Model the fold of this input.
Amino acid sequence: MAKKLAESIDLDEDTKASFLEISEKYDNKAKELMQGDRKSGFEKMKASEEEKEEELKTILTKEQFEKYQTTLAEMRPLKPPKRN
Done:
């Protein structure tokens, strides 16, 4: 998914390499967090996503980051309604 995102944002080669490195780092971290208790894993994953976005802001322009967020939202499936 990270490669597809990088391509949709039109990054130069250096920025693309940094983007993929950051994405891989946080993808691996997410996998580790989901190994144990899923509820606390989801909470920690949300914090990790925020860290990732802050790190991405350091390498992307404002326009690139906005495009990243838009593309990411389009790629994520809609959540089904909660059951009671």
Summary: The mean pLDDT is 86. The chain is about 75% helix and 0% strand. Residues 16-71 form one domain. The radius of gyration is 14 Å.
